[in-house]
Specification:
Elements: H1 2-17, H2 26-39, E1 53-62, E2 69-75, H3 89-101, E3 105-113, H4 121-138, E4 142-148, E5 156-164, E6 168-170, E7 178-180, E8 184-193, H5 198-201, H6 207-210, E9 211-212, E10 216-224, E11 231-232, E12 234-242, E13 245-250, E14 253-259, E15 262-267, H7 277-280, E16 292-296, E17 303-305, E18 327-328, E19 342-344, H8 346-364, E20 374-378, H9 385-391, E21 403-404, H10 410-417, E22 423-427, E23 430-431, E24 434-436, H11 443-449, E25 457-460, E26 463-466, E27 474-476, H12 477-485, E28 494-498, H13 524-531, E29 534-540, H14 551-556, H15 561-573, E30 591-595, H16 603-606
Parallel strand pairs: 2-3, 2-4, 4-16, 5-13, 16-30, 20-21, 20-22, 22-28, 28-29
Antiparallel strand pairs: 1-3, 5-8, 6-7, 8-10, 9-13, 10-12, 11-15, 14-15, 17-19, 18-26, 23-24, 24-27, 25-26, 29-30
Helix pairs in contact: 1-4, 2-4, 3-8, 10-11, 12-13
Length: 616
């Protein structure tokens, strides 16, 4: 009750702020940023004595050449001056200036937040949402925020009623098991997405009311109905248990016991509780983002081989020259899982971030202007080749040969990655740690294509052997890290479009807080960005089949990644037919951004100039 009351008070305070004119002049915007930062120092939203936001202060402010304001929030941990760690401040200062040169005012802020044992990631994010909302209400054209570091990520659960007519079995695996081939209803609370950054981006929605911190059981229903009836004798109830989540309850039902084991279930209209009243009136009601949110996180990619792992002769995973070597153990049972060989490295994390900001600066200042191509790699999922040609003037003569779509092995992917391209689309069956392609036909050819020195260990009997044999056809950590360490990739930044399922989802998002040891390990999209010379990436955090509509149209018109992400919500909200699709109608919530959301395509592509690289 106390948290709910505080939410109402904060909401009323922010609504009152609408009566004031929003700041436009740089000096006024800077004052609003500084005042908001001061107000949210040691911000304890639930008043339990432990602040969610501990520190928040401006490091730099740059006046933009155009309209708008962008915030860059940097985790304080990354700014500690310690021996052996690169100072990130110069790179951040350049980043702020680069954003401002591109148009909007840019403010870089240092912040620290709750990092203890309690599972309260969502609460921390609601606190930051309050901060962002204050600025949105007081600053004109507040465009969004870029989170630099290992920030908590919002986890969303959604329950919805799904009418089905395929075969169903109730009480499977028990003595009461019974199967049906008639209409039935599935009303289940399922993990939908992490990161659900719509929570941070939708600043007039009601997400704070949907947050549940404590472990909670949510009832699921499976009910089989005779044709045309809402009464049944055949149903099964289960429950799901979640904690620290945002609950989108779109499947409420009421039940009435009619006696004689007859039950009447009434499925209520979707309440869309996260939406504003105006959102609810849309042809397809869903929450709309006011700002863009993107993340630059090298924590999960910034790992090194564990120096504590030693073989029977005292050998480590790396030799005296820092290269992978074979490690022999006492027996096969003692050989560690290759996924457990790596430990966080603050030094590598900083290095990856410095490299990212240098790459970003080079792209913005024209160093990569000779690399303007677009290409895709796909398994059986097609491509949007026609969409690229149609919407980006400089790609109107794009060759279909740039789109690899059949019988693709991981060796083909390596060769594809080594060809300079500005835009890379990845369309493959994926999970949080890998995208699936065909196994290499020749391991030696894969090793050569990735630079010659494997940075992955495969178990062979009682040994760990440096080899890519163990990755199969996976485009994941071992593959990408090998390309990175061997400097096998072209020296240009890449804009990624990734349609693989769960490509942005961290492992253990449903079960663990963001600072747990296994959370986000080998995260696919982050590794792609940091090892694959990424500039920005859009990806999905759930198993699904969609992709952002009008994405390339927005970029072809001069919009940035944030604009294109936001457009997807607008397009879907106007689709009345989509409103009839239970899970699909809010599929926009599944998508999020990595890297710098303010990046755009080069002007030369927007003007229709076609590079003479032989690929057009």
């Amino acid at each position: 009750m106390r948290l709910r009351l505080l939410s109402i008070i904060i909401s009323a305070t922010f609504t009152a702020a609408l009566a004031h004119a929003r700041a436009t002049a740089f000096i006024d915007v800077q004052r609003e940023v500084d005042q908001a930062a001061a107000a949210f120092q040691n911000f304890d939203r639930d008043q339990d004595g432990t602040p969610e936001i501990r520190t928040l202060k401006r490091l730099a402010g740059e006046k933009g050449r155009g309209a708008g304001t962008v915030l860059v929030l940097v985790e304080s941990r990354l700014l500690d001056r310690k021996p052996g760690l690169t100072d990130l401040r110069p790179a951040l200062a350049t980043f702020g200036k680069d954003i401002a040169n591109g148009g909007p005012n840019a403010f870089v802020l240092e912040t620290s937040f709750y990092d203890g044992p309690e599972h309260q990631d969502g609460l921390t994010l609601i606190a930051y949402r309050d901060f962002l909302r204050r600025l949105w209400l007081r600053i004109k054209d507040f465009e969004g925020v870029i989170l630099v570091g290992n920030f908590p990520q919002p986890f969303m659960v959604r329950q919805y009623a799904w009418r089905r007519d395929d075969p169903v079995t109730l009480f499977a695996g028990t003595k009461s098991e019974i199967s049906f081939n008639q209409p039935w209803m599935r009303d289940v609370a399922e993990p939908v997405v992490s990161p659900a950054d719509i929570v941070l981006a939708d600043l007039d929605g009601r997400w704070d009311r949907l947050y549940i911190r404590q472990p909670t059981n949510i009832a699921d229903l499976y009910a089989v109905f005779p044709q045309g009836s809402d009464t049944t004798q055949n149903w099964e109830m289960k429950d799901e248990r979640y904690e620290d989540f945002f609950m989108v309850e779109d499947g409420p039902w009421t039940e009435r016991d009619l006696g004689g084991h007859n039950m009447r279930f009434t499925f209520d209209p979707e309440p869309n509780e996260e939406c504003t009243e105006s959102d609810k009136k849309l042809p397809n009601p869903l929450a709309l983002p006011e700002i863009a949110v993107s993340r630059i996180n090298a924590y999960h990619a910034g790992v090194m081989p564990d120096p504590k792992i030693r073989g029977v002769k005292g050998e480590g995973l790396l030799d005296d020259n820092g290269k992978p070597e074979t490690v022999e153990f006492s027996d096969a049972k003692s050989v560690p899982n290759p996924m457990n060989l790596w430990v966080p490295s603050a030094a590598l994390e900083r290095t990856l971030l410095v490299q990212y900001f240098a790459r970003n600066h080079a792209y913005r200042t024209g160093k990569y202007d000779s690399v303007l191509g677009a290409s895709a790699v796909s398994t059986d999922l097609g491509s949007d080749y026609d969409d690229l040609r149609k919407n980006v003037p400089g790609w109107k003569n794009l060759s279909p040969s740039e789109f690899l779509e059949k019988d693709i092995t991981i060796t083909d992917v390596a060769k594809w990655m080594e060809q300079p391209e500005l835009v890379r689309e990845i369309r493959a069956h994926s999970n949080p740690v890998l995208s699936e392609f065909g196994r290499p036909r020749d391991l030696a050819a894969l090793t050569a294509a990735t630079g010659g020195q494997p940075w992955y260990w495969t178990r062979e009997g009682d040994k760990l052997v440096p080899s890519l044999q163990g990755i199969g056809g996976a485009m994941g950590f071992g593959f990408l890290r090998t390309l990175y360490e061997n400097r096998a990739l072209p020296d240009n930044g890449v804009l990624y479009f990734h349609t693989g399922c769960e490509a942005t989802r961290p492992l253990e998002a449903e079960n663990e807080p963001f600072n747990a040891p296994g959370y986000g390990r080998w995260q696919l999209a982050e590794c792609t960005m940091m090892y694959g010379n990424g500039l920005a990436l859009i990806g999905r955090g759930k198993v699904f089949y969609d992709e952002p509509r009008e994405f390339w149209k927005v970029l072809g018109e001069g919009g940035d990644y944030g604009d294109a992400w936001k457009r997807y919500f607008q397009v879907e909200s106007q689709d009345a037919q989509l409103a009839k699709d239970g899970i699909g109608r809010k599929r926009t919530y599944f998508w999020s951004l990595l890297g710098d959301f303010t990046l755009r395509l080069p002007n030369v592509l927007l003007k229709g100039a076609q590079p003479g690289s032989g690929k057009y």
